[in-house]
Automatic annotation (TrEMBL):
This is RCC1 and BTB domain-containing protein 1-like. It comes from Sinocyclocheilus anshuiensis. Keywords: Repeat. Transmembrane segments: none annotated. CDD domains: BACK_RCBTB1 (cd18528), BTB_POZ_RCBTB1_CLLD7 (cd18353). SMART domains: BTB. Residues 399-466 form the BTB domain. It comes from the Eukaryota.
Length: 560
């Protein structure tokens, strides 16, 4: 699997005409990284600083991210020194990799050890982590505790893409050459033998004089796509993952004859299965199928490519990862399908999801929930509808209506209020001229309460202290805003104290909030001695006080 950054902002795969007509670059994805649990450890400010990120590791317990300032940070378990921090300590606090500061990342991949490969915009190749099979390419088997520059046989070469299998590595150069090194028990290095390869070695044989444009790795297999759309595979083939029509290992690259006549744009390798996408949007799959990862409707392995999703519309993106048995695809209209091992379930046919990105499939259903590619949070200042609405609340430049509360103005938009609130919809339809600016005086509610109400219509959220939430609860009851009413009750419950408990109970009774009333009543009973000593208790209406004492008595609150 190679994780490649392209500056274009499309989610689809891009054909770049120079230097090769079919050079394929995987473009960036617009995905919320907080869907991966490890990123929940970061603050809002740290999340906002992320430009690119990747979750990796045997249990998806390691993360690397790059900021908008081109600083590289890591966090997580640090198995086999895969964080590159110079030590073997795990960390839940992001640590900066100073040696990579300022290096613009274009491709990243990881193995099962894990080991990590990283290619920069200048074509440099860095590696660190597990190195028991020389998969770092530095000629040793010593673990790489920090990023090292890999240069053997790559001098004057510009690396544009990297891919890692379980314990072997591939690199693709700007000239279309493929280099391989590391574990080679099944021929996955393509050298013609099964001896491990300690440093990068050019993969030749039938790749000689071919210009390769994309690479991918299964656990112990390797794949490459040529600029004319031909596909080549080598290494382990026990499940047919090379697509050659047999299950014999291949020590050197072999062309997939079964795909002859098709122009393949993208390949993706799972643990032991492979996917290919053609320039006509057709999807082919082959290899292991124990979990239904081929999407053929059964669990039988396929030694040769078979077309899947034939009844669906054009496919524009495929996804798989060498550490999972999960497959995903995205169609031209944006539909995302998943199949294979999905949270332990074998899904044997492509299943339509509610996701908008193949990355979400791996975040929510893959085991482990790693990222199948490098994610980018570059959004060119794009705001979602929800973000735009939030930004425009109380903006006098775009508003067409003002509320005056306690002598202060709140600027809003009639259209938003009409869409979001039945109260305003009825008001504007009955009384107001849409073409005129209006100032509406509000005197029955306080400024903080009414501002919070209007802001809720723009954001779906409320941020008020419990005492003000009582007033907002009154408003929500008056305007029949049931969701707002529930939010207010939630705020009040979280902010209840001995001092305000009886006041909150009174408000709950007054506004017919039964759930809140029960909650406040139980709190008062549980803290009866303290509550009865507060000013709020003795200022209560006589009938309400009598009702409370009677009800508390029935609960046994006054028994010795």
């Amino acid at each position: 699997m190679g994780l490649v950054y392209s500056p274009e902002s499309s989610q689809e795969y891009l054909l770049v005409s120079k230097p090769h007509p079919l050079r394929l670059q995987r473009s960036v994805a617009m995905v919320d990284v907080s869907k991966w649990p490890l990123f929940k450890l970061l603050s809002t400010q740290e999340l906002a600083s992320i430009r690119q990120a990747c979750i990796f590791g045997a249990s998806a317990n390691e993360a690397i991210y790059i900021t908008h300032d081109d600083e590289v940070y890591v966090l997580g378990l640090n198995c086999s020194n895969c964080l590159g921090t110079g030590d073997s300590q795990s960390t839940i606090v992001p640590k900066k990799l100073d040696s990579l500061t300022g290096k613009k990342l274009v491709s990243l991949s990881y193995g099962s050890g894990p080991h990590v490969l990283l290619a920069t915009q200048e074509g440099e190749l860095y590696a660190w982590g597990h190195n028991g099979y020389s998969q770092l390419g530095n000629g040793t088997t010593n673990q790489g505790v920090s990023p090292i520059l890999v240069t053997t046989n790559l001098q004057n070469k510009r690396v544009t893409e990297v891919a890692c299998g379980s314990h072997h590595s591939l690199a693709l150069t700007h000239e279309g050459e493929v280099f391989a090194w590391g574990y080679n028990n099944c021929g996955q290095v393509g050298s013609g033998s099964t001896a491990n390869q300690p440093t990068p070695r050019k993969v030749s044989n039938c790749l000689q004089n071919k210009v390769m444009v994309s690479i991918a790795c299964g656990q112990t297999s390797s794949m490459a796509v040529a600029d004319n759309g031909e596909v080549y595979g080598w290494g382990y083939n026990g499940n047919g993952q090379l697509g050659l029509g047999n299950n014999g290992n291949q020590l050197t690259p072999c062309r997939l004859i079964a795909l002859q006549g098709l122009c393949v744009l993208q390949i993706a390798s799972g643990y032991a299965h492979s996917l290919a996408l053609t320039d006509e949007g057709l999807l082919y799959a082959w290899g292991a199928n124990t979990y239904g990862q081929l999407g053929t409707g059964n669990k039988s392995n396929q030694l040769s490519p078979v077309q899947v999703m034939t009844e669906k519309e054009r496919i524009v993106e495929i996804a798989a990862c060498h550490s999972t048995h999960t497959s995903a695809a995205k169609t031209q209209s944006g539909q995302v399908f998943m199949w294979g091992q999905c949270r332990g379930q074998p899904i044997v046919l492509p299943h339509l999801t509610h996701f908008s990105s193949t990355d979400d499939v791996f975040a929510c259903f893959a085991m482990p929930s790693v990222m199948w590619r490098l994610l980018s949070m570059e959004h060119d200042d794009f705001l979602t509808v929800a973000q735009s609405l939030k930004k425009e609340f109380d903006n006098p430049e775009t508003s067409d209506l003002k509320f005056s509360v306690d002598g202060k103005y709140i600027h809003v938009h009639k259209a938003v209020l009409k869409i979001r609130c039945e109260h305003f919809r009825s008001m504007f339809q009955s009384h107001w001229n849409e073409d005129m600016k209006e100032v509406i005086e509000i005197d029955q509610f306080s400024y903080p309460v009414y501002r919070s109400f209007l802001e809720f219509l723009y954001t779906d959220s409320v941020d008020l202290p419990p005492e003000d939430a009582i007033g907002l609860l009154d408003l929500a009851t008056s305007y029949c805003e049931n969701r707002l009413k529930k939010l207010c009750q939630h705020i009040i419950k979280r902010g209840i104290t001995v001092e305000n408990a009886f006041s909150l109970l009174s408000a709950a009774i007054r506004y017919d909030a039964e759930d809140l009333e029960e909650f406040c009543f139980k709190f008062c009973v549980n803290h009866l001695t303290e509550v009865t000593q507060t000013a709020a208790f003795w200022q209560i209406d006589g009938n309400m006080l009598k009702e409370f004492i009677c009800r508390a008595s029935h609960c046994g609150a006054f028994k010795n």
